[in-house]
Design brief:
This protein has about 400 residues and is an alpha/beta fold. It contains ten helices and 18 strands. Strand 1 and strand 2 form a beta hairpin.
């Protein structure tokens, strides 16, 4: 199961198992059926992507920062249960004075100091539970093998959507279904200007742009640029849960050129009010940069009519339960922040006659899991959020 353990602090997740549950039974392409004679096959995610066995060591930083209400020193922050700080020689490329931090670094250290105890306590309780049930193991004989190719040619083609006319301009249906004829799936799909939907109760193997992909059961997607969201708006459905993982601007992305980042102000163009049902839970993944967190809380959510309710933390650990980075690393942290809110707007779809009841949402929770080695691969968290989504009241 995807939830290994839960307590008052949060959840310990088996992210790989959650992916496997959605694609265990998969319908094959016509080519595979002709070769094997079978219409279905069992499918699973590559488990070696979750064989994170060792934590990373970060270079020590020496600094003291004074905030409005406390003094934060790296010597104090480096104290962590069962962890050893490794002192490395400073890089010759960059030398700083002892207290020479910019405002962003000061804010980051202050934010870390504020949430540190909650993350430390919550993670320890969940990791201890994982070790007790042997989902996590302090002694692990597994070896980290080579990772599968991370290339996805479809993502690189999203820019094409900017140049293509929308189907609505030609009066066509904005939705296309992955049809199944005797176990065969279609290969002629318009991925960039129409919603693609698998309405089957099983996953579908399809050929898209010359490559095979697995489409989970009962799901739909739009492969497009964020400025071309009209097909999704025209889909005619409103959602009780919207999760966003924006390509935030950061130094690492600029250096690697791994993907194009999006200026924060452009996120306001996303048509969340046109997609959210009244009371919809909106969740946004945020990097550990205080300016991004402030933007979501103080500008983005108010712009959409979303009330900020909670901050949760995804803590990444190894198979033995250690943080993937030292908790007090001055560079990369072993956690990411999720900002949760609820849509309070009164859009054109608020006429629904179905009365719904909101469940309370905890202000802070910790989600612990072994992360995927694939870059920026987030765990699916819909199961955890489902208890906070609007639900119909019990019939009297």
């Amino acid at each position: 199961m995807s939830i290994v353990f839960r307590n008052a602090n949060g959840w310990l997740l088996d992210a790989c198992s959650l992916v496997d549950k959605g694609v265990q039974l998969c319908n094959v392409t016509s080519e595979r059926k002709a070769a094997s004679g079978k219409s279905h096959f069992k499918c699973c995610f590559k488990h070696e992507c979750f064989q994170i066995l060792k934590s990373h060591v970060s270079v020590k930083s020496s600094c003291t920062v004074t905030t409005n209400d406390s003094t934060v020193s790296d010597a104090a922050l480096r104290r962590s249960e069962n962890k050893t700080t490794v002192d490395c020689k400073p890089s010759k490329k960059r030398k700083r004075k002892r207290n020479d931090l910019n405002q962003g670094e000061i804010d980051s250290l202050a934010f870390h100091h504020k949430i540190r105890s909650a993350i430390l306590e919550g993670t320890k309780s969940l990791v201890d539970a994982g070790l007790s049930c042997e989902y996590l193991s302090e002694v692990n004989d597994a070896r980290e093998g080579p990772l599968p190719s991370q290339e996805c040619n479809l993502a690189a083609l999203c820019d094409m959507a900017k140049e293509l006319p929308l189907v609505s301009e030609h009066g066509e249906d904005p939705v296309q279904f992955i049809e199944s004829e005797d176990g065969c799936s279609t290969t002629h799909l318009d991925l960039f200007t129409r919603i693609t939907e698998n309405c089957m109760d099983f996953a579908m193997e399809v050929m898209l742009m010359g490559e095979k992909y697995i489409i989970p059961p009962r799901c739909a997607f739009l492969l497009s640029d964020f400025a071309r969201m009209q097909p999704l708006v025209g889909y005619g459905r409103f959602f009780d849960l919207i999760v966003l993982d924006p390509p935030w601007e950061n130094k690492s992305v600029k250096r690697s050129g791994r993907y194009s980042f999006l200026p924060s102000s452009q996120l306001k163009r996303l048509p969340v009010p046109l997609l959210a049902s009244t009371g919809c839970v909106v969740v946004t993944w945020v990097t550990n940069r205080p300016s991004h967190l402030r933007f979501v809380r103080d500008e983005l959510y108010p712009h959409w009519g979303v009330e900020v309710l909670a901050e949760w933390f995804w803590v990444k650990v190894t198979r033995s339960g250690e943080y993937v980075f030292p908790l007090d690393s001055p560079h990369k942290k072993p956690y990411e922040v999720l900002v949760l809110g609820r849509y309070r707007g009164c859009g054109h779809h608020s006429h629904s006659s179905l009365r719904k009841t909101e469940l309370p949402m905890e202000e802070q929770r910790v989600i612990v899991s072994v992360p995927s080695a694939l870059h920026s691969h987030k765990p699916s968290l819909s199961g955890q959020y489902s208890q906070h989504v609007l639900v119909p009241p019990t019939a009297s």
